[in-house]
Design a protein that fits this description.
By secondary structure, this protein is an all-alpha fold. The protein has two helices and no strands. 45% of the residues lie in helices and 0% in strands. α1 runs antiparallel to α2. The mean pLDDT is 81.
Amino acid sequence: MNRDNRAPVRREQAGYSGGSRNGAAARPKRMFGRPDWWVWIPILGILEAAYVLATLAASTLTAGVLIAIGVVLVIADCWFNR
């Protein structure tokens, strides 16, 4: 209320700042986010299979493909969490 006529004071709203609630400048959207903890469960299984294939079966090509699949899974999870 103001002192003169006891009516509620209407405040001017701050200018539009790109969707931020507190009036601060909005940050640009990141390209990748943080990976979730659950993505590491299949990655550990894939890495273990790659280790077994590389050491016992002597199939380094298949182990490399499995490692590449694990990297793609982590990158995809980071992309979805942005």
